Amino acid sequence: MSEHGLVYISPLSRIFEFVCGMCIAAIYKRRNPNTAYWLATAYELGAVLLCAFAMFNMHYLIRLSHDLMLGTSMAMWLGSCGSFLAFGTLIYIVAHGRGLISKILATPGLVLLGEISFSIYLIHQILLSKYRQNAQMLSHLPDGFAFAIYMVIVLLAAYLIWFFVEMPGRRLMLGFVNGYGGAARKPWQPSNLVSKGKPLFAVLGLVCTFSFLNLTAVKATQGAASKLTPISLTEAESMTSASMKDYLGINFQNAFTVRGLDFKCKREGLYVYVTWQIISTQDVVFNNAVHLIDQAGIILSQADYKQSPEVRNLDLGSAWVDTIFIPNNKIMKETTSLALGIYDDAKALLVVDRGPSDWGGAG
Residue 339: which of 354, 359, 321, 320 has the closest Cα? Predict the structure, then answer.
């Protein structure tokens, strides 16, 4: 368990916030001020501004924690939880429902969003991790659209968890309390928020979204096979760093030559850019092998792809660049090298003319 896990994720570090929330709830139950609409709106607006002020100035508390030598754990806790009093104040004021902001938040759509908020909290990090691991399938889409797809999946999944898990759990616990001498309470029924058909629409929405993602993933993995990206030899050489220059000109059995090589490490994974030049007429469509290997030459992961059929129609000497994405979850800590190879559908590898190689001199 990391320090971040203990301070930010562990429920133990959130007990203080939880108890403060219980105290605010107890105060709310005992007080019911009859505040005028305009004054309540002013209080609500002031509480919103207080929360904004607390969030944007939290770095001062973090700096104070460092100055007082309270430790990195306290600084981390203040950075993520230090504004809890401001948000507690906001919740207390808005809960009375006297002002404009509370009236807006009482609309059915926002109430439903509040009901599923705990499910969003439970599911969003899991889906965010999957989103990052499979970022390549959305890399050709605008960032805003890719984020919208992620949000649709989060909201639909959270809604289904709320409807099929959280709501039955509430009814079960309330029935348990009533059956064992607790105060009689009417089970909460969201009849004004959700009809019987809406979960079905949510399931269909998730199915459609994942079907779209699957289609997008297929297009992404077949991107190199469906469309060539031409490049001049001058551009290919200029994109290659000095440390990679020795690999330029490697010949794959008088069929293809490497003319450019570049790597970019991004948050979601490793991007590899390889420029190929065709040097003989081809009658078949080859496959390109991209392997991550360890010091002993053992393949740890791979990102093979099929060449575009258009390669067979290229003029001799033509060059194109392929973009290969390797997500972080495929990059093992034992990885020391990246190996490139070319093989046909019968798995027969083209032999390289020079440079470090394995597979019998084929890559």
Answer: 359
* Cβ atoms of residues 110 and 104 within 8 Å: yes
pLDDT tens digits, residue range 24-44? Answer: 999 998 887 888 999 999 999
pLDDT tens for residues 46-90? Answer: 999 999 999 888 878 778 877 777 777 888 788 778 899 999 999
Q: Enumerate the domain spans of the chain.
A: 1-106, 111-221, 233-343
H or E element, residue 41: helix 37-56
Burial state string for 250-260 with b = 16 or more CB within 10 A and e = fewer than 16? bbbeebbbbbb
CA distance 116 to 250: 57
How much is the average pLDDT of 307-316? Answer: 84
Rounded-to-integer distance, Cα 159 and Cα 289, Å: 42
CATH of 233-343, one of 3.40.50, 3.90.1200, 2.60.40, 1.20.1550: 2.60.40
pTM over 0.85: no
